[in-house]
Amino acid sequence: MIRKAVPEDVVIIEQIYNEILEKEEKTISYTNWQKGLYPTIKTAQNALEAGTLFVGEEEDKTLYGCVVLNHIQPKEYKNISWNIDHVNENEVLVIHTLCIRPLNAGQGRGNEFVAFAEKHGNEIGCKVIRLDTYEKNTPAARLYGKLGIHM
Q1: How far apart are the C-alpha atoms of 84 and 68, rounded to whole Å?
Q2: Does residue 130 form part of some domain?
Q3: C-alpha to C-alpha distance for 44 and 58, rounded to whole angstroms
Q4: How far is CA 70 from the centre of its chain?
Q5: Does a structural domain hold residue 85?
Q6: For the chain, first and last CA: distance in Å?
Q7: For site-directed labelling of 116, which of 8, 47, 51, 66 has its Cα 20 to 30 A away?
């Protein structure tokens, strides 16, 4: 189940961020994130306060991932020729910091978050979903590619 985050989730979200960063330290860094810089507990706290932080929760209440969904587009987006570019900023939903706990990777959880983002975007009147992801993030590229989304 994916739901809006609550204050008690923030510490666990930080753990998820750190689990991903620790795995990348031991293997390959796909995210271009840096421990202590981004993402941090402050990243999660700010999104919680803005009402844009969502978590994936197992039946036993264990969190398996999180995502920030908002209208904030990185400045680089202005230089991109979008297929759909005649939309107001509030009609664009941006997927930021989509994280799946390494233990839960490969279980379709990323697909669940993207489906949730599409549903949420429709509910709040968005016409477009854009992705905020590092261009060399091959796991994200595979996920979005399988879903027919181009980075």
Answers
A1: 22
A2: yes
A3: 19
A4: 10
A5: yes
A6: 26
A7: 8
Lookup result for tokens 């990777």: 105
Express each pLDDT in 90-145 by its tens digit. 999 999 999 999 999 989 999 999 999 999 999 999 999 888 876 666 666 666 66
Domain that holds residue 59: 2-146
**pLDDT tens figures, 48-57:** 999 999 999 9
Read off the tokens for 29: 């860094």
Question: Considering the domain boundaries, does residue 32 fall inside one?
Answer: yes
- Comparing CA positions, the residue from 121, 122, 140 lying closest to residue 132 is 140
pLDDT at 30 exceeding the cut of 80: no
Instruction: Provide CB contacts within 8 A for 138, sequence distance 6+.
Output: 30
